[in-house]
């Protein structure tokens, strides 16, 4: 069998805030067509890890590659343009825009004229056919067809989580970093989201951060467990579940 | 999350009608008004261009600049410098020079200031404007505190700007052109990105937008349009002094934009006219006993603006839109 392609990898990634090592010597790979789940208790450094990979935070040491580029120290916008998409644990949307305008703007980022180019000051953003098509596809994937005209801030919590994903998809990423997409969702909403994630997995290299191992057991191809900023296990879900360290440090705590 | 956004972007039909009536009134005014009022309305139109240029930053992009008058003043000074003592200079060289000078200053200062956020942005824009102010104020070679007189308005060849009415219509043409340009820009990819930056800059970066260059482009463009206004001001009054780039000028522009309603450019026009009108109204208040009410016009203006912000956060335009919507609901 052919090895799946590594789209993103981190080596020896460390982030210190003063004396605290929020992420300490973490290495991981994200493969095309596979879902790599990162779990761990609160404060394990999962979100910090996501922020390091997306460029929201610069690492203290270590390096990151994305599709063959060394992206260590790149700005978030440059990393995004190299086709990394991320969603946020705390919903991060344009609250005063409609759902459609949120997703359309996200899609526009892939066709953005240079801001000093006067041609970009004159055309109507609404008339960018390729952008509209991309936005439409993302809206449908995320299941927000009936919420196009809802103001994002007034949408339900679950819908805002869906919107978060739709915006990420509208940028057509090849690598997806999703930070707790299931957090705070009802059972039916979570089930829909899991179905969506299974579908997306086929075409992306995915990293999924979650608090809870059970939600991910069927989804994940690879499971990394973090505790106190460190990786204590990283293997297939079945192997990780059987790992004594994991049971002692994390699973046993329930 | 972000503060509640108090913006009207799409103008209701009723407001569009009011704007058209306003335009008709401005076109008719030179044929009915006296010279004194003609000059006053002309100045109002120039300030409306200035206010619109600030609205691009303040209302659309969420960048509150407390130093926008610097670019207004710089363009005026450029015109004063390039105008020879004995003859007029061509409009077609002086206008690009003045607007270009203001744009260049905004590009350089913008490069340093648009990386700051919130209160720091306000402070740094003000600090740079004060620096520009004192460079002109303290240098005799640059006119010093007295400023510089211009003996001629620019020569347009095809029409005579020395004629008050011609100059008035030239200003009106600029006002309409800037308004239409900015309304178009509002719905362009660039305009939508600026709105995104106002609402959530962090998310914009995560989506791949280079927000620094977007804000710098907006700052430069706003500086250029402020320069157009400053050029017209210097040409009309025949005089420039450091007050043009002073703190009061910058602060007045902010108040005009708030007064009219932010983020749609129509509000900035309404705000500029209203502000100037109120200013004259308050200045002409009578003496009551020992108390000269007119002299304290700034106090009345301040109270008025505070009241407006509390009771009509969307400005005069928002009040109008609400009144029309209510009337429509009642008629239906």
Description:
The complex is a heterodimer of chains A (254) and B (332). Chain A has 254 residues and is of the alpha/beta class. Chain A has two domains: 165 residues, P-loop containing nucleotide triphosphate hydrolases (Rossmann fold, 3-Layer(aba) Sandwich), CATH 3.40.50.300; 80 residues, no CATH class. Helix content of chain A is 33%, strand content 25%. In chain A, the strands form two sheets. A six-stranded mixed beta sheet of chain A has the order 6-7-8-3-9-10, sandwiched between helices. Chain A has a four-stranded antiparallel beta sheet with strand order 2-1-4-5, with helices on one face. In chain A, a hairpin with a 2-residue loop joins strand 9 and strand 10. In chain A, helix 3 packs parallel to helix 5. Chain A is globular. Chain B has 332 residues and is mainly α. Helix content of chain B is 70%, strand content 2%. Chain B is built from twelve helices and four strands; from the N terminus they run αααααβαααβααββαα. In chain B, strand 3 and strand 4 form a beta hairpin. The longest helix of chain B has 27 residues. The radius of gyration of chain B is 20 Å and the shape is globular. Chain B starts with 12 loop residues before the first helix and ends with a helix. The interface between A and B is large, with 39 and 36 residues.
Core attributes:
heterodimer; A: alpha/beta; Rossmann fold; 2 domains; six-stranded mixed beta sheet; four-stranded antiparallel beta sheet; 9 helices; 33% helix; 25% strand; B: 332 residues; mainly alpha; 12 helices; 4 strands; globular; disordered N terminus
Rg from alpha-carbon coordinates of chain A: 19 Å
β-sheet strand percentage of chain A: 15-25%
Q: Order of helices and strands of chain B, N to C?
A: HHHHHEHHHEHHEEHH
Rg of chain B, Cα atoms, Å: 20 Å
Q: How many E strands of chain A?
A: 10
């Amino acid at each position: 069998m052919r090895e799946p392609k590594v789209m993103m990898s981190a080596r020896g990634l460390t982030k210190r805030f003063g004396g605290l090592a929020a992420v300490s010597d973490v290495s991981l790979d994200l493969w095309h067509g596979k879902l790599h789940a990162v779990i761990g208790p609160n404060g394990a450094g999962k979100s910090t890890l996501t922020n390091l990979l997306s460029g929201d935070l610069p690492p203290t040491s270590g390096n990151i590659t994305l599709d063959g580029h060394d992206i260590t120290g790149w700005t978030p916008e440059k990393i995004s343009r190299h086709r990394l998409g991320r969603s946020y644990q705390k919903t991060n949307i344009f609250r005063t825009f409609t759902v459609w305008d949120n997703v359309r703007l996200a899609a526009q980022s892939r066709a953005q004229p240079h801001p000093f180019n006067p041609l970009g000051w004159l055309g109507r953003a609404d008339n960018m056919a390729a952008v509209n098509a991309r936005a439409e596809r993302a809206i449908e994937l995320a299941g927000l067809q009936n919420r196009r005209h809802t103001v994002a801030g007034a949408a339900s919590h679950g819908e805002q989580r869906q919107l978060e994903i739709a915006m990420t998809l509208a940028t057509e990423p090849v690598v997806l970093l999703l930070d707790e997409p299931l957090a705070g969702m009802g059972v039916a909403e979570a089930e829909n989201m899991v179905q969506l994630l299974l579908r997306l997995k086929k075409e992306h290299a995915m990293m999924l951060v979650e608090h809870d191992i059970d939600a991910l057991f069927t989804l994940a191809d690879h499971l990394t467990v973090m505790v106190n900023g460190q990786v204590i296990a990283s293997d297939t879900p079945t192997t990780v579940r059987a790992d004594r360290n994991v049971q002692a440090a994390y699973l046993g705590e329930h | 999350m972000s503060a509640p956004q108090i913006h009207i972007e799409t103008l209701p039909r009723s407001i569009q009608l009011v704007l058209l009536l306003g335009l008709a009134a401005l076109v008719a005014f030179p044929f009915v008004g006296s010279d004194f009022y003609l000059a006053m309305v002309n100045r109002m139109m120039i300030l409306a261009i200035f206010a619109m240029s600030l609205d691009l930053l303040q209302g659309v992009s969420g960048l509150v600049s407390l130093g926008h008058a610097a670019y207004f003043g710089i363009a005026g000074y450029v015109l004063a410098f390039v105008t020879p003592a004995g003859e007029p200079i061509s409009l077609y060289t002086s206008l690009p020079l003045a607007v270009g000078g203001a744009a260049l200053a905004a590009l350089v200062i913008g490069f340093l200031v648009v990386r700051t956020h919130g209160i720091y942005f306000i402070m740094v824009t003000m600090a740079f404007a004060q620096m520009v102010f004192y460079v002109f104020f303290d240098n005799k070679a640059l006119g010093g505190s007295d400023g510089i007189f211009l003996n001629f308005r620019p020569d347009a060849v095809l029409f005579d700007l020395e004629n008050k009415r011609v100059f008035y219509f030239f200003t009106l043409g600029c006002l309409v052109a800037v308004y239409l340009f900015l309304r178009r820009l509002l719905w362009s990819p660039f305009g939508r990105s600026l709105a995104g930056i106002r609402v959530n800059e962090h998310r914009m970066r995560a989506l791949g937008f280079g927000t620094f260059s977007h804000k710098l482009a907006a700052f430069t463009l706003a500086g250029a349009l402020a320069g157009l206004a400053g050029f017209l001001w210097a040409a009309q009054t025949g005089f420039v002094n450091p007050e043009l780039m002073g703190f009061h000028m910058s602060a007045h522009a902010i108040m005009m934009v708030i007064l009219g309603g932010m983020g749609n450019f129509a509000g900035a026009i309404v705000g500029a006219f209203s502000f100037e009108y109120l200013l004259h109204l308050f200045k002409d208040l009578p003496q009551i006993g020992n108390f000269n009410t007119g002299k304290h016009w700034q106090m009345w203006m301040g109270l008025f603006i505070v009241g407006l912000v509390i009771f009509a956060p969307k400005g005069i335009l928002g009040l109008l839109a609400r009144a029309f919507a209510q009337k429509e609901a009642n008629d239906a």
